[in-house]
Design brief:
single chain, mainly alpha, Ferritin
Length: 173
């Protein structure tokens, strides 16, 4: 099970590795789409956890993921509407969706403690990867001050998610 998670995370890291290579060419609409896509992926994973898990701590974490990521995505949609910008799909966001679909299909086959451990481990690794991409690539490549501020605020929230996921992983061992 953990080997599958490791392979999926390596693929996810590869997807975000595309972003640094493209950072000189990433546009604000592409960056907005990548960030929105990453949030939507986490919402979808949390919804799987809410349907599958019976663990109160996992359920509380998943509810937090839905609420926080939905709030940030709603702010992102409001911002792109205000700016008159249409988010643009790109290779990085497409790769994120493909890898997330594969990982979520694997999570959907698990139950009980096995699911809880795999979900928590996936969330920890996912937040590490996304937070790293935000900090090292997406935020520096953003030229719009309002988008940069939203991504920076999101990063602070998502770093808290990473810490919470790490705590959950430790607790579920």
């Amino acid at each position: 099970m953990y080997a599958r998670i490791g392979m999926a995370l390596a693929a996810l890291a590869f997807a975000f590795a595309v972003a640094p290579a493209q950072s000189a060419t990433l546009t604000n609409p592409q960056i907005a789409h990548i960030a929105y896509t990453a949030g939507a992926i986490d919402i979808k994973a949390a919804q799987i956890a809410l349907k599958t898990s019976k663990n109160a701590d996992v359920i509380a974490f998943a509810n937090n993921m839905v609420a926080d990521h939905q709030a940030v995505n709603d702010q992102a949609l409001a911002l792109v509407k205000k700016l008159g910008v249409t988010p643009e799909d790109n290779d990085t966001s497409k790769a994120l969706v493909k890898q997330a679909d594969d990982e979520q299909a694997k999570l959907a086959t698990l139950t009980g403690a096995e699911f809880d451990k795999a979900y928590a481990a996936n969330e920890l690794a996912y937040h590490k990867t996304v937070n790293g991409a935000l900090e090292q690539t997406l935020i520096p490549a953003t030229s719009n001050a309002e988008l940069k501020a939203l991504l920076t605020t999101g990063l602070k929230i998502f770093q808290g998610h990473q810490d919470h996921a790490a705590m959950l992983v430790t607790m579920l061992k």
